[in-house]
Specification:
400 residues, mainly alpha, Arc Repressor Mutant, subunit A, two-stranded antiparallel ribbon, 2 strands, disordered N terminus, disordered C terminus, DNA-binding, nucleus, DNA binding, repeat
DNA sequence: AAATACACCAACCGCACTTCG
DNA sequence: ACGAAGTGCGGTTGGTGTATT
């Protein structure tokens, strides 16, 4: 079908926004909400197309946007998620509260990608550039399985993000009806991407992350002489951490609390900070508490492998996502039967061919570089960390 | 000081997907 | 079921600031 242009090109302004335009847009949205983006420019008295207004709002004017340089933790999160999701910036953004997909994308393209390349790591595959030379059956299998897992996980993440967004929108609608003076801040957050909890301080098992932590390129991150430097800023989100105890993750709105999350915290010293999502109801929800910095600073401390967490996680997946989504998809029967869960479990424990030792031993026996073997040896931890990362996401909304 | 190269990032473009009548 | 409208998303561009020669 033909596709109409998003707006008439004639007479519409393009290019950088002026403060006046920003003010108009802000004022209008604050008062009326954005409603239909196409109709907004006219109503707001802007000579812009709706698309431009939407972009300006979502990428710049939204009051819940965190600007400024990315913290080390955020960088790690981006790298990990990019390894998992590829260039799916919106999905990645759901795990980086207050960061827009555009900002993440820009940061990746201008900073992270280059750094990886400089290190000889392919920013696309997240493997050492000459890794292809090491390819063999075992590794191929491993890679294939991991890739397979990633695809499914990726799909799940997308669904999560969407549902959380919807959930937030819904709760926000209620809040708007209540109407408080702080509505603006919360409204904007509700009308945008789902806010995700900060990722767990995952162990840097990927080569990239190891290098990130230990290598010299930290010097390129301003002011970070050490990993846990004071510069390590906590990713922020609309969260509330309990003051002294690791917060407990609750579902959006505090309605659905998946027990699996609690288990990840069996070891308080090392475990990720558990996150309590503040429900959209109540005024406190509009407060953004940026705490938990201490927890992040300790990210380098070892995190126990999330064996128990993995179990819970995969159990949950079998009971929910796998069951409800995958099983209805006939084209993926093979996966459904074996189950993503089983793939995960195999990868982490059972299947020798998928285990780190299996891959590393058979493929790097010729004395491949340590970094190469490490990459595969650390697959378990790597995926555990990612899964934990995912597990800490607001995936346990009532929808699931 | 001027010219050039480079880095950064806001904004645009257009395709894909979803929603709605 | 269909098509148009609306929106989301990722890739790319172009303007601006900074560093280097």
């Amino acid at each position: 079908m033909g596709r109409s242009p998003c707006c008439d090109k004639v007479g519409l302004k393009k290019g950088p926004w002026t403060p006046e335009e920003d003010q108009k847009l802000l004022a209008y949205i604050e008062e009326h909400g954005h409603g239909s983006w196409r109709a907004l420019p006219t109503k707001a008295g802007l000579q812009r197309c709706g698309k431009s207004c939407r972009l300006r709002w979502t990428n710049y004017l939204r009051p819940d946007i965190k600007r400024g340089k990315f913290s080390l933790q955020e960088e790690q999160t981006i790298i990990q998620l990019h390894a998992l999701l590829g260039n799916r910036w919106s999905a990645i953004a759901t795990h980086l509260p207050k960061r827009t997909d555009n900002e993440i994308k820009n940061y990746w393209n201008t900073h992270l990608k280059k750094r990886l390349t400089k290190m000889g790591i392919d920013p696309v595959t997240h493997k050492p550039k000459n890794d292809a030379l090491l390819s063999s059956d075992g590794q191929s299998k491993t890679a294939a399985n991991l890739s397979h897992m990633a695809q499914w996980e990726s799909a799940r993440l997308e669904a999560e993000a969407r549902l959380v967004r919807e959930s937030k929108l819904r709760s926000h609608s209620l809040q708007q009806q209540i109407g408080t003076s702080s509505t603006f801040a919360s409204s904007s957050s509700a009308s945008n991407k789902a806010e995700a909890p900060p990722p767990p301080p995952s162990r840097s098992s990927l080569d990239v992350l190891k290098a990130w932590n230990n290598g010299g390129w930290l010097k390129s991150s301003e002011g970070s002489g050490a990993i846990a430097s004071t510069d390590l800023e906590s990713p922020t989100s609309t969260l509330s951490f309990s003051e002294n105890a690791p917060p407990i993750m609750n579902g959006i709105g505090g309605e659905n609390n998946n027990n699996s999350n609690n288990n990840n915290n069996s070891n308080n010293d090392n475990a990720m900070p558990m996150i309590e999502f503040v429900g959209s109801s109540g005024n406190s929800s509009s407060l953004v508490k940026e705490e938990g910095e201490q927890e992040w600073k300790g990210y380098d401390s070892s995190i126990t492998t999330f064996s128990s967490g993995m179990h819970e996680f995969t159990m949950a997946m079998e009971g929910t996502w796998v069951h409800e989504t995958l099983r209805t998809n006939g084209s993926h029967d093979d996966i459904v039967e074996e189950g993503f869960t089983n793939l995960l479990l195999k990868t982490n424990s059972e299947d020798p061919s998928l285990s780190s030792e299996g891959g590393g031993e058979s493929n790097n026996g010729d004395g491949g570089s340590n970094s190469h073997s490490d990459f595969y040896e650390d697959n378990n931890n790597y995926w555990n960390s990612i899964l934990n990362l995912v597990n800490s996401s607001p995936s346990h909304s009532p929808m699931f």
